Records
---
Amino acid sequence: MAQRQRPSGLDRYEQVGKIGEGTYGVVYKARDTRYNGELRAVKQIRLEQEEEGVPSTAIREISLLKDLQHENVVGLLDVVHEDRKLHLVFEFLDLDLKKHMDTSPQAYKDPLRVKRYLYQMLDGIAYCHSHRILHRDLKPQNLLIDRANDKLKLADFGLARAFGIPVRQFTHEVITLWYRAPEILLGSKHYSTPVDLWSIGCIFAEMVNQKPLFPGDSEIDEIFKIFQIRGTPDEETYPGVTTLPDFKEIFPKWRRQDLKVLVPTLCAAGLDLLDKLLEYVPARRISAKIALTHPYFDELRAIDEIPPLREWNGGGPAAAAGAVSGRRG
């Protein structure tokens, strides 16, 4: 008797419902018939012009995500090209950090939760940076939470791009406004991994305060929101700032505010880490790898939630704490 063939290609994914719409197409929920009906998120990308082939954004996302395997990065499980549509199949997670902060604000009154999520965020981005990948669009909506084990995972690498050298020229429009690094806002075309650390600093403060730190409604308003808190930069505080394309000498001169006043419930170690994440000078901004060793996380080390400090021998100039993955179950 002939053996029944298992469904392959798109047939193996039974559509359950629509999750949302993106730039290129639809994201829907599906059951994987090969894996006991496990839920998947399928990003369906419409290929309107056959001669144009697969959109470059999708090619970038696929090539990057296939290489990324880390417990704090959403996994790309399958790629299916059928019916002039490209389907990217991801593990399914239905909760993001923004939604969780909105619906369960009391959960973030627990300093340990904030600490865990920040550590996992940094661990995921350190791994990406060690693979020469910038995320460039970190925001609470792009951080998914696995309810089963309370793990936070970086998602949506649609704007991410591998970088071959430490600094490269990129397009101007990248990160969601409230989490955008000052070097990008001021028109720098050369930026690197520090842009992700600024975004993480903004998210850190938002988890603690339960409101965004720099909620600008335009690029100039965003710049001024940052200046009002971090002080208007000059050549002393941010060497080279006056040469950036969008810096103006007529900008109002604000004095730097004390983060302790702005984030009053954060402990001293947390304030120190936040200050290092929100450093103006990109080259001085703390790296993800170094941030993972900060004393703010000593409490997690003390209760064995994360490994003791050690050097990772994974190689690479930014060998990024991938070794401090493979931890909590």
---
Amino acid sequence: MRPGLNPAHRPAGPLGLAVMLTGTVLDRKTGAPVPFATVAVPSRSAGTVSDAQGRFRLPSRQGETVQVSSIGYEPVTLAARSAAPLAVHLVPAAFALADVRVSAQSQDPRRIMKKVIGAAATNYERQDYTAQVYTRRRITNFDTLRNEVEYVSDVLDPAGFKEWGGGFLMMGPKQTHMVREKHTVVPGQEPTDYSVYLEPGHGFFTAGSDPVRISPLFKSGTLGKYELRLDSIEQRGGEAFYVIRFAVKRATNRATGMYQVSGYAGKVYVRQRDYAVVRYEALWQEDTVKNNAIARKYHGTKSSIARLYTKVFSDHRKAHVVTYQQGANGRYHVATSVAQVVSVGHVLGGNPFYAQKSCEEYFSPLPQASAAELLAAKDDPTLHWGKFGRRRKLLTGRCSGKATNARSPWNRRRNWKSVNRSTHKKALFNV
């Protein structure tokens, strides 16, 4: 297997030595960090997104041109010269709103979101859709990089796919995920399985990378469960965009699509011309109170629940940023999905941890003919475990490639995680 699957990491000509470009993106006017800014090398289509504190990290080469941009700011271009940390100051854009028709009706965020939902069938892919995905994952505990892996996959979102994990009892349409190549950058320093990548909210699997398709925020039946506010009307590239802030009123499963989440809030950027979401930013908060109560209740028992709840948390939250790109057919698809999570706490009866994880995904549409190949791949026994099983195989090499038994501990753990983390556990563990 050749090292480095990402074309962005391959030399693009006679450039200087490789450097790890690091820094912080700041608002020049206020000095505040600019979260989720795009840091890119245009010549190689390489890039990353700054975290919630504006910090970024990007492999580069001396002399390469790097562009830093964020909606609402003028882009900045700089040259990669050394590994010394940078402070990149973005100037707020001076928006000329003379050409934008603004009325009380057009500024109603709920009306705008209803138009987004109504236009989704026209704006976004709803039939079988295939894409190639480059994924890079990192796990850090305190200041030690524990694991880093990258892989290239083909994915199929079937017509009707609109629920994470297939919806109720996983009976609905589900994404097909086929790993083509993988490269372990930093081998895991301890035994790992799929569970190390399970996080609250979306973003750590390709099936959760498209919020417009799967989030209750973009469904008319659950839109009323959110507080909405029009943050601003911005112009970029001669086009106007609505920036709408959202926050779930009560973080139930029906409102968020997830269990044991205590908060879900963020912003969506909507193109005024066609009411398409072009960027999505979200912050998920894990319900640490409920998690800690369950962990302490069953600690020291022989219950299966005790094996699943081994940690208590003082903090557990995640940022997820998605950008959409319009294809040649006029429909939008996910271009990038970047998720970053921090969890702080300790293992019951064990050591403390300060863990940070990231999952970067970059999508490229595939020809429609590939859909038939991916659909046929469902019959391949090595894919019966879906993406979780493939990731387990990539990380540990313990996946046998045989069809799984529904009563196996692996399936019971997977189903329990996907369907419910609380109310169904008795029925599940008594299978």
---
Amino acid sequence: CTELLAAMEAEAVAPKLRTFTPLLLAYSEVGNLDKCVWVHEKMVSHALEPTETDYVALLRVCVKTGNAERFYAFLDAFIEDMMQPGPSAWEVLKDWFSRSSFCALCAYGCSEAAQVDGRKWTITEGTVSKDGVCSVTGDQLQSLELAPAVEKALLDKVEQLVRPRLDFTVRCSLGTEWDGTGLNSVCSDVAFGGSSGGFSYEQIASMVEHYEAQSKKVLLLLHQRRTEDEQVPPEHRSLVAQWRTRGVMYNCQTGNNDDWYWLYAAVKLGGRTLVVSNDEMRDHHFQMIHDRALARWKERHQVHYQVHGRRVEVEEPPPFSARPQRVGETWHFPSRDGGDGEEDDAPPAGKSSGANSSLWLCVQQEAGPH
């Protein structure tokens, strides 16, 4: 395999994940940490994103060799890339922290991993409330936003895709007229089909009223055909004219995909901008981005909705991130429902948030001497 990889690189043939994963699994199985690190570095050098299977193999070889420095380095990368660990990840985490609690690895110089000031690890399964409070420790889980550098990289990627599709005027108006409002704004993809499956001006009005009642600034993104007088039913023309006059509506140009508009506007605005959309962003337009940062961004910014007549029900992101995180000296790992598939995306906001419905793995250090 190493010879094949060298030959591919010599011929400038870009390897794929399937080139590396079998090699990584084999080296992990025999406990060859150096070779596993080498394979991982090769993956990174080719801009390939490790899957959960790859990360579990890397963590497993660290357990076998007792290398704390590498384990926590890979763990940091794992929790950044994987939203919700599957059963195999839980297994290797339990192996590490339970073995550490018996100090079985101290011969490898792992005092930092095994114990801190002589304190051992305790592993407990619990739940997290809808407000983000751990049932085991009482810790308040945090809302994990994208790091500024990661958010900028995501915006750059979106802009690269949008630039050929949205003209300069559109980008300027979406990026400057609304700039600075991200801390308290809502970007609504309102080309939606409501509860009845059809386009509804009344439902859009209900959504606008719902968020403006919370003193949020709303941006509606509508196809132009939905706002031209001859296309708008007479009873709704004054409503559309009001949206236009108030500056809450922006029209997508003919021939453009509205997805690009609201994604660009929402990421550009930053802050706590919310996107009201039931679009799970899995079609080919979003596959062109193929960035795990988009999944993390969705987890904190996407709002799902239901409209029943004039009554609006929204499912906003919970006040905490259903992602692995460390609070103080305690690790919190959510579980992924539905088996051990390679699911990298965030669960739909409000639909599988990790609150109450799922178990969490809580790894804490026992109290130190007083």
